[in-house]
Write a structure and sequence with these properties.
The chain is an alpha+beta fold. The protein has 2 domains: 436 residues, no CATH class; 120 residues, Immunoglobulin-like, CATH 2.60.40. Helices cover 22% and strands 29% of the residues. It contains 14 helices and 37 strands. The strands form 10 sheets. Strands 1, 4, 5, 6, 8, 10, 11, 12 and 16 form a 9-stranded mixed β-sheet that branches. The two termini are 49 Å apart. The mean pLDDT is 95.
Length: 677
């Protein structure tokens, strides 16, 4: 094959934008722990007649808006080379990235509308990563390997999983998929290019009290692998690209100690995930570490170490033709033939009461509990007043789900949920990647993979490696099995197209697999095109106004100085007169907020050893009054740090008023005093 890899920043604004994932409006960005990247991989056949693009981006999920804008840009740059069918865009599902990049109304509620700078950063980062991969195409080889990752996941809805037939459950040793599938890429001289790993785990080691933008456990795994292969480079630099992509992670949590009551410390591993005192709001899962930062590193390191082992031992070469298939489907109206006599239908989208309960990884609001198959008259009345009552047809279709939001029947200011959904499969030789538009649970994913594999088998392409890539192309929440759906925990309440959603997807993905196996992808109907809403600037974000420094100070001045000396495992920190980081994000792509610099006696100069993409640094922004704000830079000095003289630097931009109607953006910097380690 011809192979190209690329990586580009897609972080966007790290302040004031609500983070996407926990749907907690109080969880607003206030700084940076690690940068977010888009990682792109292009595989083409040597004749260049066919190619496949796989992108994994450090974002909560790929939205329809992001996908449509990316494909528009690719078309204007490359014509028909990169298209709906051969470009897969997947989100890692970090819950600590900026939100606001959606066009459907539901997602506006918690992300303060459509945030152009966030959307722009993601779209441009994805396109740039594809550009870099495109420019670096060279002859190469692919190898596949697989193995089990231990001690890194639990099923967070085990009571739902137990609803699946005993005969089906007995075929599996665990209630999560422990298998990691890894694709290794080298050029024809054996030089290492990169890898893609697919593994099912929620990147929610960082919980919903976090305000620092970061890529969570799978992002830390990427960081470790890339730092190891790009020796001597700052984080985010270097040619080796390691993507840790999402899979069927719907009911899979990294918080391996399980759910405990935050107030009493007792277990709340019950069907309602509720505590005797404080109810469901007190039931939270704990990771393996002493805090969320340590848990993120422990889970990320586990994933990295397994990937490293699989990478080093990968010997099964991937060969064969490239192919891709894509359709748009109206998921609110799919007829599914269960057998010769039974046909069922999907429903208009709707969310159930337990959606509002959240999960043990991020609890919901008010007094909602998981596993409610009865509505609550109080909330139902409020909903009926505010949003209108669900139609009888929708109620009946979604049974036994009690509907909280009948999103498929809500269209102000435009639709609340997608109806036109992408289904997509790409085959690279013996590897079939199923790009799914949401979060399949463990058993849903198993059923889908098995159905697609048997479809390939029965049409003359046996032995396919079938892998699920999660959170692709458009976000449609969760997909549970029919049996899991009956007990209506969070994942089931969030299965928006009703109890037969999974059966519909299985039927659709079988159709795509069959078309690929029979080399008939050109005969697939395209399906109804999704809408691109004409959204002007609909955001509730505070506007960026002129900023000021305290009396007698200027931007970048030190307010609280570092100590003269630190030891490893201590935290060096300095606080500066700061400015809103959004100003930097909107005025400089790839803006770096901080460096850790070491003094070299040989050259008598300072050299940057870390930047803001490092997991050892933290950048905090806090807003004061009257246009003032502070920035704190922390360096958590790791064991093994070289002794010597260091300093911390901060780079920002502030808005300066030059006339009544005009402000300009002014760059500035600050530095701590030198300190010794």
């Amino acid at each position: 094959y011809l192979v190209g890899v690329g990586r580009a920043d897609c972080t966007g604004p790290v302040a004031q934008v609500p983070l996407m994932g926990y749907a907690n409006p109080d969880q607003v960005g206030g700084g940076l722990l690690s940068r977010l990247y888009s990682r792109a991989f292009i595989v083409a056949d040597p004749e260049q007649s066919r190619r496949v693009v796989f992108v994994s981006a450090d974002i909560g999920m790929v939205s329809q808006r992001v996908r449509l804008e990316v494909l528009k840009q690719l078309q204007s740059k490359y014509g028909e080379l990169y298209r709906q069918d051969n470009v897969i865009l997947s989100g890692t599902h970090t819950h600590s990235g900026p939100g606001g990049y959606f066009q459907y109304t539901l997602f506006w509620i918690t992300s303060k509308g459509l945030v152009r700078p966030a959307l722009g950063a993601i779209v441009n980062g994805i396109v740039k990563s594809i550009d870099i991969a495109h420019e670096n195409m060279k002859r190469g080889r692919l190898f596949i390997n697989r193995g089990a990752v231990e001690n890194s996941q639990i099923n967070r809805s085990p009571f739902s999983y137990l609803e699946n037939p005993a005969s089906e459950r007995s075929r599996y040793s665990s209630n999560t998929d422990k298998e990691m599938v890894l694709l290794k890429m080298v050029d024809e001289d054996g030089h290492e290019l990169g890898l893609i790993s697919w593994f099912a785990v929620h990147p929610v080691s960082m919980n919903n009290s976090n305000h620092l933008v970061n890529s969570d456990n799978v992002g830390y795994a990427s960081y470790l692998f890339e730092q190891e292969k790009n020796k001597g480079m700052l984080p985010g630099e270097g040619s080796f690209v390691a993507a840790f992509a999402s899979s069927n992670l719907g009911d899979v949590s990294p918080n391996t100690r399980g759910p405990f009551c935050a107030n009493t410390g007792e277990s709340c591993d019950n069907p309602q995930s509720t505590c005797p005192v404080g109810g469901a709001a007190m039931c939270m899962a704990q990771g393996p570490g002493s805090d969320m930062f340590e848990s993120t590193r422990i889970i990320g390191q586990n994933i990295y170490l397994k990937a490293k082992e699989l990478y080093e031992k990968a010997s099964q070469e991937v060969t064969g033709p490239l192919s891709s298939a894509h359709q748009w489907v109206n998921m609110s109206d799919v007829s599914v033939e269960l057998n010769a006599t039974h046909t069922v239908k999907t429903c208009k989208p709707a969310l159930g009461h337990s959606f509002a309960a959240g999960t043990i990884d991020g609890v919901g609001a008010f007094n909602f509990t998981q596993g409610s198959v009865e509505g609550d008259p109080f909330w139902d009345q409020i909903r009926d007043q505010l949003l209108g009552e669900p139609s009888n047809e929708t109620k009946a279709c979604h049974k036994p789900k009690p509907i909280l939001f009948s999103t498929g029947e809500m269209s102000w200011p435009h639709p609340w949920h997608p109806e036109i959904v992408d289904v997509q499969v790409a085959a690279i030789g013996s590897l079939a990647i199923l790009a799914v538009p949401g979060e399949f649970t463990t058993m849903s994913g198993r059923r889908l993979r098995e159905a697609v594999k048997s479809e390939f088998d029965s049409h003359g392409t046996p032995g396919m490696n079938v892998v699920i890539a999660g959170l692709c192309n458009v976000y449609t929440h969760y997909i549970t099995t029919y049996e899991e759906y009956q007990v209506q925990r969070y994942e089931a309440a969030s299965t928006i197209y009703g109890p037969h959603t999974l059966s519909a997807y299985i039927q659709l993905y079988r159709g795509l697999a069959k078309a690929i196996a029979l080399n008939a992808t050109q005969d697939l109907p395209r399906g109804p095109e999704p809408p691109l809403f004409n959204v002007t600037n609909a955001t509730l974000l505070p506007s960026l106004s002129a900023e000021s420094a305290p009396a007698g100070k200027t931007f970048g001045d030190v307010l609280e100085e570092v100590r003269a000396e630190y030891r490893e495992r201590e935290v060096a920190e300095v606080t500066f007169v700061g400015a809103n980081p959004r100003t930097s994000a909107e005025n400089a792509t790839e803006h770096n907020f901080l460096t850790v610099e070491r003094y070299s006696n040989i050259s008598s100069s300072w050299r940057a050893v870390l930047n803001d993409a490092s997991w050892d640094t933290r950048f905090y922004w806090s807003k004061g009054s009257r246009g003032q704000s502070n920035v704190t830079v922390e360096w958590h000095i790791p064991a093994g740090t070289e002794p010597g003289v260091y300093r911390l630097r901060y780079f920002g931009h502030y808005k300066k008023r030059v006339s009544l109607f005009r402000t300009i953006t002014v760059p500035f910097e600050g530095s701590s005093s030198a300190f010794r380690i």
